[in-house]
Amino acid sequence: MYNVKSPRAQEFISNEEILDTLEYAKQNKDNVELIDAIIAKAKLCKGLSHREAMVLLDCEIEEKNQEIFALAKQIKQDFYGNRIVMFAPLYLSNYCVNGCVYCPYHQKNKTIARKKMTQAEIEKEVIALQDMGHKRLALEAGEDPINNPIEYILECIDTIYSIKHKNGAIRRVNVNIAATTVENYRKLKDAGIGTYILFQETYNKESYEKLHPTGPKHNYDYHTEAMDRAMEGGIDDVGLGVLFGLELYRYEFAGLLMHAEHLEAAFGVGPHTISVPRIRQADDIDPTEFENGIDDGIFAKIVACIRIAVPYTGMIVSTRESKECREKVLELGVSQISGGSKTSVGGYATPEPEEENSQQFDTSDKRTLDEIVKWLMDLGYTPSFCTACYREGRTGDRFMALCKSGQIQNCCHPNSLMTLKEYLEDYASLETKATGEALIDREITKVPNEKVKAIAIKNLEDIAAGRRDFRF
Ligand code: SF4
Ligand code: SF4
Question: Can you tell me the distance from the alpha carbon of 166 to that of 168, in angstroms, rounded to the nearest whole number?
């Protein structure tokens, strides 16, 4: 029985409700009157239900699809302006006791190099990341109670926050580790993490169990209820995601939005972010063996429909996607991207020799962070290294309230310019710096609040003079 508030996975992600939703959307995909009504509702920017969003996803009427894409672009612009937040993944350890069939870190893979970084190695990696200009990391580790216990993760977080190299600092550590206990989530919260990210992989229980044949991750309910435990443990910024390609994308789309609705209904705060990864080539993983891969057109439609359905939720694409694909989805709704990423354990400080491959997946976008920053600015975006909200205690429902009132814009815009200025001063190439300075000169005039503008201009001058870390 579907119950959005239920603490039980199979009730808030009810298979029956998903199947009914898919059928409802199929029946209504040509229902112009209904589609118009849903688009009109979406224009109010208060989001859509999973059923409504599903109808838009299934719609094949060209003219209506153009309206859907235009609306997604409008909502993206209204909520996120031109800003794109930058981050990098940091793989701590690829030891894993699970058997996920789509990931080369699965326990039975004997060809991949197994690595776990020491604190000294992490220090080197973090310095290399700081020297690129990164301020925000997403920590990644396989599930392994012996090699990667929670104490190891906590120690790594402490190490990362403690490293101050030249003007560098990692100011926000997001964490993507296996589903765990309320007690461990509380420890992560106390360690000062930003977002807790956990991909569902697939919401389809039957497929989930086949795709995770062994290890603790096999337990669908425990995995699906992880965000509830994270919330109970005090983590109020959580990041959802599915791995597109494992199951039929329509099923995943409905499940993803139902999960978001559940968090909102049960805890009063929806997901902070949604990630939209697609299966990629990796050590012993061949993406063509998965039958449910989606093409770039469907991928773009999914991004647009998520943007419309949950306007307040940030959307992330990683370097799994190519430059061309990232360009397309940036305008449709993506608000955060990674840059200069390494998906191996180590590799930022010293490139990994080919015979020691420990990558989780092959990246598609292999450009440096400087190249990506320049590219974004040439496309008209403002790359942002902002981490202000979590450091100002603006998380969970406090953050969402600011988003919903539109007040967050007064912070995001000047913060993006000040953090970009830091990047330009400390890390950018001459060409990138010139482009960025011109961008800041243009953009600073657009800060609507005169008081905020005056403070931001003063802060920009102070950054040029060598001071760091200003925020609204
Ligand atoms: S997806 Fe995660 S849990 Fe599964 S094998 Fe890879 S690292 Fe382990
Ligand atoms: S002010 Fe907050 S919401 Fe805006 S970019 Fe910074 S951290 Fe994100």
Answer: 5
Q: 364 C-alpha to center of ligand 1: Å?
A: 20
- Give the model confidence (pLDDT) of 144-180 as tens digits: 999 999 999 999 999 999 999 999 999 999 999 999 9
Name the segment(s) of the chain with CATH classification 3.20.20.70. Answer: 82-366
How many residues would you count in the chain? 472
Nearest CA to ligand 1 atom 7: 142
Assigned token pair, 69: 């894409």
**Residue 281 CA: distances (Å) to CA of 144, 173, 303, 320, 331:** 23, 27, 22, 9, 26
Reading the block at residue 390, the tokens are: 């979590």
* Distance in angstroms (rounded) separating the CA atoms of residues 403 and 197: 20
Interval 264-291: pLDDT, tens: 999 999 999 999 999 998 999 999 999 9
Q: How far apart are CA 99 and CA 119, in angstroms?
A: 27
| Ligand 2 atom index nearest CA of 411 | 1
**From atom 5 of ligand 1, which residue's Cα is the shortest distance away?**
106
CATH ID of 82-366, from 3.90.1700.10, 3.20.20.70, 2.40.50.140, 1.20.1250.20: 3.20.20.70
Q: What does pTM read for this prediction?
A: 0.97
Rounded to 10 deg, the angle between the 323-332 and 62-80 helix axes is 80
Find the DSSP H helices in 111-181.
119-132, 150-162
Are 463 and 444 in contact by the 8 Å Cβ rule? The answer is no
